[in-house]
Amino acid sequence: LTGLKHEVESAAKQMGYIDRPTNQTDMIFVGLGILLGGLFGALAIHLGGVPISLSTSGGALIAGLLFGWLRSKHPTFGGIPEPSLWVLNNVGLNMFIAVVGIAAGPSFIAGFKEVGVSLFIVGALATVIPLLAGLLMARYLFKFHPALSLGCTAGARTTTAALGAIQDAVESDTPALGYTVTYAVGNTLLIIWGVVIVLLM
């Protein structure tokens, strides 16, 4: 809505709240979301000695969904400028990828030297086959939009970096709609089955 200041303010009284562009981030809103999400994700339920938890990242994701919904319903708080969102999305994601690579690098090189190229082949197959199966199911069984299908498969693999790459490629946030639920489910199952496999071994 554009126009003279007094006209906009007059119309706003009839339409709702004026959400003006700003360069200030509501850090209380952001910090509270991270805190509550982390605390929620840190909670664990023990079933038969197996701890079930969303993890702090999963909790932060759920909190982000909730706080984003609150912001859409009540735009009087929680404002975050577009440049700040860009920094959080891109710089934060790139730092996450870098840390994962640094942490996984030594063990990957050691395993590659010990086992050989078969480790790479098995890892590639274990990665590609579930993704292809998920995409085919989303496309032909559930009739999802391709953007949602890609978001679902990225979430099922709990790969935030893949979601960022998909959103950049399609220039849309639509894949995130499919990412959220499968991420929560995939993250929980990953923890459960990891513990189960360790117990079986």
From TrEMBL:
It comes from the Bacteria. Keywords: Cell membrane, Membrane, Transmembrane, Transmembrane helix, Transport. One of its GO terms (cellular component) is plasma membrane. The chain crosses the membrane at residues 27-45, 52-71, 91-112, 119-142, 181-200. This is Aspartate-alanine antiporter. The keyword DNA repair does not apply. Its main location: membrane. It is a multi-pass membrane protein. PANTHER family: K(+)_H(+) ANTIPORTER SUBUNIT KHTT, PTHR30445:SF9. Residues 30-198 form the YidE/YbjL duplication domain. Coiled coil: none annotated. Belongs to the AAE transporter (TC 2.A.81) family. It is found in: Cell membrane.
